[in-house]
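Chain A, query sequence.
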Amino acid sequence: MTADEARIAPLYAAFNAQAFDRVAAMLAPDVAWPDEAEGVPLRGREAVADYLARIATSLRVRYEPISLHTDEHGAVAVLCRQVVDSATDGSPWSSTRVLHRYVFRDGLVERLSTEQDHRDTRFAGIDALLERVHAAINAGDLEAIVACYAPNARFFDTFEEGVVQGAEGLRAHFRHLLETVRLEIAILDYALEPDDSVRARLQVTTRGADGGLWQDGLVTVWYRLEYGLIVDQDIDDSGV
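Chain A, predicted structure.
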């Protein structure tokens, strides 16, 4: 994760907490920011802070970042679930995916651009994560595997029929897996589902420690991501 990518989580945490003074402190003095209510650009920290505070009087907006990556121009693209509720009674207004692009200068946000109702089922940050985690499994690289999971990851282990939770639980789970079997995984395709889970179809060859073939077929994995890391997964190895 780059230094600018690491700045994304504190920014959304401040926004979701409606701590707009903290948000403003992460912006460049001449920041360019879209006013999505009026469809006009805003310029400067104070204008952005005033806009956010004004919106918060009627709407409660929160963001759940799914994945992020740095694009070829150096901007940090963040794919989010945007949830909008009434600030008065909490009634739901909308729930859509949005794409944010941040340009940083000297560690501060210089410009934000947004794409509302983002419908693409693929995203470069997800591409990179899937390639990274499956390459690490194929290579038997325990620490590289664990690095693809969030510290708060939690999922049910169908291999041992137990819950895997936290960094040490992940490390123990994958250490045991790598000591027991050898895996060769190829990604066939994936899609971002309407509920924001990532459905990946994999060709998986599993061999025992002695090299004997255990399984060779289609496996479907549903991953749930936060900030570009895996927080949950569900595996279907029925071959369907």
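The domain at 3-115 is CATH 3.10.450.50 (Nuclear Transport Factor 2; Chain: A,). The mean pLDDT is 93.
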